[in-house]
Amino acid sequence: MEIRFDGKRVLITGAGKGIGREVALLLASCGAKVVALSRSAADLESLAREIDCETIAVDIADYEATRAAVQAAGDIDLLVNNAAITIPQSFFETTVEAFDATYAVNTRGVLVISQVVAAGMVRRGKGGAIVNVSSLSSKVGLEDHAAYCASKGALDQLSRVMALELGEHQIRVNVINPVITWTPMADKVWTDGEKTNAMKARIPLHRFARPLDVAHAIAYLLSDESDMINGITLMVDGGFLAR
Q1: How far is CA 5 from each of CA 33, 51, 167, 191, 220, rounded to the nearest angstrom?
Q2: Which residues pair with 33 in a beta bridge?
Q3: pTM, whole model, 2 decimals?
Q4: Could you give the CA distance from residue 149 to residue 166 in angstroms, rounded to a whole number?
Q5: Contacts of 103 by beta carbon, 8 Å cutoff, 6+ apart
Q6: Where are the beta strands (DSSP E) in 5-45?
Q7: Percentages of the chain per state (helix, strand, coil), in multiples of 5
Q8: Where are the domains of the chain?
Q9: Which residues are catalytic?
Q10: Rounded CA gap, 53 and 24, in Å?
Q11: Cα–Cα distance between 22 and 5 in angstroms, integer?
Q12: pLDDT at residue 182, as a whole number
């Protein structure tokens, strides 16, 4: 099975680093025209030196600027809502500011961007596919991740509603839920060797995911090969939840 996206424009958020960058590289190699969105102009410039892509530098926390930027991007056939932040704090230390900032990007940003992109898909009447990148932390609690876990649980539920309401327009919405993935964001949290080893011990494959592992799953859910898959949360967790 060869997955191709020739003639398709795909918007990828958080495309400057980690999973988003890997998705951009993979989909471009499969023929997609990539529209890369990141708050870091430097990361986008670096990506544009690797692949032919359009770039959008915007902070998703600014929903008005984000809406305007996505509207200006034009017609989008496929969407990957990947951008996310984490502000590690224990439950008692979680601030309202950190909680709101996390939701602004991880959950509200998906709503705003998807509203714009899906409206265009409906208008053109050709359907489409959206993949929202959630996390294992939407299914299990992780210490010091109160805001992050809450935002990803909310994202799973938002995605289910999207799948229900957009399905009649032949727009499929699915969710990827990776285990800890070696990205710059993970590097900030999983620096303690004892903590890292304890987490790996809970994964039957005894390793964290690579960004490419997640990118492959995203590509499949965007492709026509998954044409009857809608409204799922796909664990990319090395068997973590099998225990």
Answers
A1: 8, 15, 21, 37, 11
A2: 9
A3: 0.95
A4: 25
A5: 147, 150, 151, 154
A6: 9-13, 33-38
A7: 50, 15, 35
A8: 9-235
A9: 148, 152
A10: 9
A11: 16
A12: 73
- pLDDT for position 197: 86
Residue written as tokens 């070696």? Answer: 182
**Contact 44/83 with Cβ under 8 angstroms?**
no
Kindly give the residue spans of alpha helices, DSSP state H, lying in 1-40: 18-29
Residue type, 141: G
Q: Is 88 exposed, middle or buried (0-12, 13-18, 19+ CB in 10 A)?
A: middle
pLDDT tens-place values along the chain, 243 residues long: 789 999 999 999 999 999 999 999 999 999 999 999 999 999 999 999 999 999 999 999 999 999 999 999 999 999 999 999 999 999 999 999 999 999 999 999 999 999 999 999 999 999 999 999 999 999 999 899 999 999 999 999 999 999 999 999 999 999 999 998 877 666 566 566 787 888 888 999 988 899 999 999 999 999 999 999 999 999 999 999 998
pLDDT on residue 63: 97
What single letter denotes the amino acid at residue 5?
F
Structure token digits, residue 25: 């590289």
User: What is the Cα–Cα distance from 103 to 112, expressed in whole angstroms?
Assistant: 12
Q: Collapsing DSSP states into helix, strand and coil, what is residue 137?
A: helix
Q: How many CB atoms lie within 10 A of CB 106?
A: 26
DSSP H helical ranges for 58-130: 63-72, 96-103, 109-124
Backbone angles phi, psi at 208, to 5 degrees: -85, 165
In CATH, the number for domain 9-235 is 3.40.50.720
